[in-house]
C-alpha cells in the first residue's frame, strides 16, 4: 500500500481520536489543573501563620514536590494500575477507569506546574499595588480579583500557554493506559500497514498543526492582555 493510501485511510480515524479524546482530555485537564493551581498558589503565598494554614502549606508543598519531581508516565501508571492494589477486605478501595485516571493525572500534574507559575506571577506584582488598594478600603478578596489577578495574568500567560501546549503533546502518554487517543490510533495503523514512518509522521503532523494554532492564539492573547501598556519610548 502506498504512503498516500495509508494517509487517506488513517486520517479520518486520527481526526476522530483527536476530537473525541485528545482535545477533550486536554481542555478538561487544563481547566481543572488551573483551578487547582490557583488554590495551591494562594495557599502558598498566604502570610497567615495559623496552624491550619501551616498544615495546608506543607501539604501543598508536598503535592508540588511529588508531581514536579516524578515523570508523568509514572504518575499515569501509578494512578491507573497502582491504586487498585489498595484493598480493604479483598476489594479495591480506589479503582478508576482509564478516562478518569487520565483526567485526574493530567490535572494534578498541570496543577503542580501551573501553581508555581501563578505563585511567581502574583508575587511579582509590586507590593505598592496592594498598599494602594488597601488605602482605598478594598477587601483582600476584591484586591486579588480586580487589581492583582489581572496584572498577574499578563505575566503568567506565556508560561501557562506553554503548559497548555505541552499538555496537548503529553496526552499521547494516555495510550499507555489504554485510552485510544491519536498516538495509539497511529500505533494501530503502523502495525496494520507495516509502515511506521508514514503513520507516525502523520500523527506528528497533526500534533504540529494543533500546537501551531495554539501558538498563534497565545500570541494574540499576549497582545490582548498587554494592550493597555504603554509601548517603549512613549
From TrEMBL:
Keywords (A to Z) from UniProt: Amino-acid transport, Cell membrane, Membrane, Transmembrane, Transmembrane helix, Transport
Transmembrane intervals: 21-42, 62-86, 197-217
UniProt subcellular location: Cell membrane
Database matches in Pfam families: BPD_transp_1
Gene Ontology cellular component terms for the protein in this record: ATP-binding cassette (ABC) transporter complex
Molecular functions per Gene Ontology: transmembrane transporter activity
InterPro entries: AA_ABC_transptr_permease_3TM, ArtM/GltK/GlnP/TcyL/YhdX-like, MetI-like, MetI-like_sf
Statement: the UniProt record of this protein carries the keyword Transport: yes
Boundaries of every ABC transmembrane type-1 domain copy: 19-215
Residue runs in coiled coils: none
An annotated GO BP: amino acid transport
Topology with respect to the bilayer: Multi-pass membrane protein
CDD domains assigned to the protein according to its UniProt record, in alphabetical order: TM_PBP2
Keyword Membrane included in the entry's annotation: yes
Family the entry assigns: Belongs to the binding-protein-dependent transport system permease family.
PANTHER family: L-CYSTINE TRANSPORT SYSTEM PERMEASE PROTEIN TCYL (PTHR30614:SF0), MEMBRANE COMPONENT OF AMINO ACID ABC TRANSPORTER (PTHR30614)
Stated name of the protein: Amino acid ABC transporter permease
Organism for this UniProt entry: Lacticaseibacillus camelliae DSM 22697 = JCM 13995
